[in-house]
Amino acid sequence: MTTKWLKEHGFPFHHLEMEKFVAHVYIDDRAINGCNWKRIMKEIKNPVLPGRLARAKGRV
Asked: Is residue 34 part of a domain?
């Protein structure tokens, strides 16, 4: 369904990945969490993210 929609609307693509892949940080444009970008950027720079810090804050 996604491949068909992309082709019908003229979006070029090489590969579709439908599952989350391993990454240190995800930025989700649909997350509803009262986003504070200054806090998020500070946490992204924190060397213990995503492991212990993310789990301790309930983000994993």
From this structure: yes
